[in-house]
């Protein structure tokens, strides 16, 4: 685990270009900014080439697209591949809505993601494993999460993060589990979207995207856990505020005091 990447990220302040969804765009921008990256958002295909050019990493969130946005997402994904920018995909609710899986499947034939970050319902859907996803949430299933993540990574030839109470990170061969976190992440819509964009920020400072992905998961989950230990009685609203403070202020040494992974 390369926790020193957090200091590297804060020092480099990499630009991360996001196509976010309209629900959580501000969480994503402020989360990246607080952590030490430099977010930029765009919904205009005419500036896609320049946007990818100025960014050190790209995160495409499939959370609430229109047909016009799907075209923009496809253009940006292809440009990221052409311009060798690390590309992270967040396949929101592909396990719950057949149309979304159809669109995501087509997009994944048009460009190659370096990392896909989703919950169990989303990753199972992309791996063609049976699972009862529930809207944007992971839902219910009895499959082996490590096997599902590995199947998805092998099928799509990329690093996969299957997030949840335990995050599973795999490139199909190497696998790490991050046990940190707090159930409060689930009461904040956008925790997952923030994590996906933060994964992109780590990919901007580390060429081994499996390493970048696992470090991002540990940093994000450990910061969530640390703030719940520091501040009693956190709930949906106060957790959101404390999470932003935590992203800005938490040090590598503090993360090491709770880090739990294998
Ligand atoms: N029950 C839990 N206990 C500890 N940590 C959790 C729990 N559930 C989620 N997390 C953490 O929350 C973060 C977001 O992951 P999650 O799987 O909830 O994303 P998601 O389902 O895509 O969320 P979103 O609602 O934003 O789309 C990760 O860092 C994960 O480790
Ligand atoms: C609630 C919601 N609906 C579409 S996207 C989104 C935010 C989680 O990504
Ligand atoms: Mg999500």
From TrEMBL:
Chain residues that bind ATP: 117, 163
Entry similarity comment: Belongs to the Thz kinase family.
Gene giving rise to this polypeptide: thiM
The protein's required cofactors: Mg(2+)
Keyword ATP-binding attributed: yes
Annotated substrate binding sites: 41, 190
Name of the protein in its database record: Hydroxyethylthiazole kinase
Claim: Transferase is one of the keywords in the record: yes
EC assignment: 2.7.1.50
InterPro entries in the cross-refs: Hyethyz_kinase, Ribokinase-like
